[in-house]
Structure formats: C-alpha cells, structure tokens
Amino acid sequence: MAKRPTVYDVAQRAGVSIATVSFTFRQPEKVKPTTRDSVLAAAHALGYVPSASARGLAKGRTGALGLFSYDYLRAEEPTGAPAADMSSTEGGGEVEVVRDGDEENLRAFPLYVDEVQRGVELECRQRGYALLIGGGSHADSGAIITDVAGRVDGLAVFPHTVPDDVLDRIASRIPVVALSESPHHDNLSHVTIDNAAAMQALTGHLIADHGLTDLLFVGDTRFPENGARFEGFRTALRAAGLPVPRKPLAQESRSDGRNLVAELLARGRLPQALVCVTDDLALDLMDMLAENGISVPGRVAVTGFDGIVAGRISRPALTTIRQPMERMGRAAVDILIDRLEHRSEPPICIQLPARLVLRESCGCSTA
C-alpha cells in the first residue's frame, strides 16, 4: 500500500511551512490567495486530505463541537393521502404536481432552531472547528447525546431536548452550553434573552399605543422560557391596571388552534388581541382566523415571539419579538472554545438583547 501523503509533503511541494498548510485548511481567510492556491494545488497533486483525528491526537482534542437539536418538521404526509398528479416531461421523466396547501404539514421557512444553528455553523467554520449535529425526542435522547458528546470537545443543546441528569453528567466531562434557557441551579453555561422583559414591552405596546384592554395570552407555558413570557404579559397588564389572568390559553398544535378559534367564536369571546408564545403559533392562529373570515388586525390583533422569516413575509406581516438567533449560535461557540481554554473557570451566562419588531398584525403600518 502506498504511503499516505502528510502535511510535511504538502509543505515541501508548495514551498511553505507546515503551519501555512494547516491554516490553509482550517482558516483559509488568514492565508494569502496566491499562497493558498499553491498549497491546494500541492495537496491535490499529492492526494492529500487533512486528518482531523491526527490533529486531535496532537492536542488531546477532537477539533469538533456538537449541537443537539430537535426538528420542527411536523407529521409526515398522512397515511392514505390521495396520490399526487404526475406530469410527463420531454425527457421521459415525471414531475409530481401538488395543489397549494397539500404540503401544509411541512415547514416551509427557516424557524428558530434553523437560524440559531446557522450561527453555530458559521462560527465553527470561522474558528476552525468541525460541527457534529445530533437530535431526537426527549424520550430517546440520552443514548444519542451521549454518543455525540463522546465525539466532540464541547456541546450546545436546545432546551427540553435532553434530561437534566444526562446533561449534568456530560457537563462534568466537557463544556456544555444551554441555548435559550436561563440558569436554574445547573453546571451549564447559558445563552439567552430576557423573555419576561421582551414580552412585557410587546404587551405594553398593544396597551399604550393601540389602546387595547382585552388581551389573551396563548401558548404552552410549562417550559421556563415560555413561562417567563407569560409573566412578562401579566406584568404589563398589572402595570396598566387591567385584569391579570392566572393561566394562559394552552395550545400546542395546529388542530388545537382550530379548536381554540372555534371555541372563542362560539362563546362570542374573541378578544382584541391574541398574544402568542411563539411565531409558529401566531401564524397558525392567523390562518385559522382567516379561514373563519376574521380580519387581522381589523377585528383582532395577533403577535408572536422569536422573529422567524415566515412572520416577515406573511400577510399581514407579524408583529413579534426578534431574538438575535444567529448571534446566539455564535455566542455558544465562543463560550465552548473559551471554556476549553479555561476549564477551571465557572460556567458563563450571556443574556443578549431582543428587539420589538412592529408590523401589520398589531395594527402598525409598515410604510
């Protein structure tokens, strides 16, 4: 078997140092284009591929970070769904033809998780780290995340994806950053926003600038960040001298949204505003309201939280709290790399600023 080319072979052929070869593959933006081209040409001629495992052995690290996520992809196409039409093409192939709405169960736009993940990816690339992404349901996540954690130097996790005891065990061995959650007596670093203050600002806008006094909060508040948003809503009502509800209107799925809207209409209880715990929920409710001929914001204002792309291009465009999602992902990578260099230091908590984005769904003009 022929000897595998090494970094020394590439450096000799290109007439550069081995450090320059390393930078070319790990941080190419730091190498002059002409030098980079020479190194890549030498590597191509020799058939050289850089070895991440070899770098890891030298440093006692893998050179990779992990991200444990979940997928917002909704249920797959239901069993027994009608077959799609097929149209022939000139080349003899076939193209599936679907009617608008046939794929309503599939996400069409980047959501919160996607945008945070993009920030993680970009920062890993800039800092010369590979990224390993894993995911699964909370019930079966223990074995999966343990496998991921065994392959990386540090790990970022989205909320409610992994049991707390599993995370604590992993955090005793490698740095772990929890995304979107505030610290709650754990050994993890955190990247989050002030959910309560952000929702208080949004609710205060509806009350002070639009004169609304009948507002309902909609969403599942079992998770800490959602509970904080509900508390921000309650604080704004209390400050305005308005009735403060003890519980929100819980809603977890699209079918729940249809039932919720139908129930409110049947009781004649449609409020002046529906303040939703997420953009996904707000957009679903706007669809339900439109199906029932209810104008947004003419009859009822609707607001969301997160700032996903779909809310910007919906009609009406969605008023929301915009989280700095890409920045959150980048901050998580910064923390992990810093903790790798300073292992004895305590966990870090970063609270990033959020923005109130005023659009049409609350009655604001975007002109």
Automatic annotation (TrEMBL):
Keyword Kinase applies: no
Q: Which InterPro entries match?
A: HTH_LacI (IPR000843), LacI/GalR-like_sensor (IPR046335), Lambda_DNA-bd_dom_sf (IPR010982), Peripla_BP_I (IPR028082)
Which key words tag this protein in UniProt?
DNA-binding, Transcription, Transcription regulation
What's the superkingdom here? Answer: Bacteria
Read off the PROSITE patterns from this record.
HTH_LACI_2 (PS50932)
Q: Which GO terms describe its molecular function?
A: DNA-binding transcription factor activity; transcription cis-regulatory region binding
Q: Which Pfam families match?
A: LacI, Peripla_BP_3
Keyword Coiled coil included in the entry's annotation: no
Domain (HTH lacI-type) spans 5-59
Protein name per UniProt: LacI family DNA-binding transcriptional regulator
From what organism does this protein derive?
Answer: Nonomuraea montanisoli
